[in-house]
Predict the structure.
Amino acid sequence: MNNMLFAIVLLPILCGLFMFIRPFTDRKNRNIYVFIVTCITSALVIWCVLSGMDGTLTLLRLDDTLTLALRMDGLSRVFAVIVSVLWPIAVLYSFEYMSLEHEENRFFAFYTITYGVVLGIANAANYFTLYFFYECLTLATLPLVMHEMDSKARYAGKRYIIYSMSGAAMSFIAMVLVANGGSLDYVLGGCGSVAGKTAQIVFLLGFFGFGAKAAIFPLHGWLPTAGVAPTPVTALLHAVAVVNSGLFAILRLIYYCVGADNLLGTTAQTIAMAFACFTIVYGSTMALRNRNLKRRLAYSTVSNLSYVLLGATLMCPAGLASALMHMAMHSVIKIILFFCAGALLCATHHKGRNVEDYEGYAKKLPLLFSIFAIASLALIGVPPFGGFTSKWAIAFASTAQGTMGMIGVAALCISAFLTGLYLVDVLIHAVWPAKDGIPVDLEHCHKNGWQINLSLIILTVLLIIVSAYANQLYDAFAGIAGLM
């Protein structure tokens, strides 16, 4: 039955490659093909999760240490479910959005391949397998970042690959150090390959190496720049899949490789927590300063990713559970906000990009801004939305970690305040336009089609459902972390 893990990774990769061999000439047929492949893959993932399969599938053995192997455990299931639930919705959204773009076959081919690569990361049984798919992720997503192929897109692609490859190099050195100590296999509590100063060095190399994709300061610069990519890329890949792969890799490193007990109370933990706290406040501050809506949301992502990193670096089961909680909640919330920004671009034929460009638009697009408002409240952390539950869990776990933990709580509070400012600002401009400010011109604005609207509605319902069951979700994550 473990062969099914190979199937869910291989199916989207092969089907994406097939689109290069036999390009579709009919848009409708291609869309049906992509949607069927995506839905089948997601259904297989959910089946694997519900079946509770356990065991390792070895694909390739280079030697006793380096093996390419897949295994689904509790942490894998969390990441795999997040990706498999959101990907089909994102594909549906992309059909309408990309109909206004060019090179659709190339876009959907790489988009589909990326799905399989991310599932490879989610189900990696060891450090080597994760590193292999992690490098593949950079190569698969680079053409998506550079989709427009103009000067801005090429510049964004250069920054993306420089940051990603630099981070991967640090992660590779960490892997070599772990391999020298013994096994690379992931085991909850640590694989026992490193200890003492070596453990701290491995952790810091991996933290900042994988942290490049997780947008930790100062390795965050690629993410706002990548906003030039089509919205389905910035939404799913740079708010869910790519950045969450970085977070996931760090969670594996701490709790399944080095071991949280080897890092608790060390200088390495203090350094990591300090960078996470700074990034939380820095990202929110930069989001408030930026008037371009997609860049504002990108910096918001920079901030919220470090919420997860703060929870992860607490080096305790409660920290791991709270990190998983916010990773899940932020994924759903942020993809809604990015999709709203993309829907605004479609509605205005890309004539408006800054917050001020949408003065009074709530009158013409009430559904869109209602959904934006709901997601904004969730990201700010207003009860009873799930964003409050995840932030509370991180803050509560932080209070037990001494001075750095209290600094983390302060960073969360400051960030929540700034988040309210930069998101409510968008709504104020849209709902209450300035009488003596920029004139409201709605003539060139049109309502979006059913695919974009349906995607947003489904995601909003999903947000409400996960918010309603937030406590039960946290209990499930606590079980994975060994807290219960």
Summary: The chain has a mean pLDDT of 90. The two ends are 29 Å apart (CA to CA).
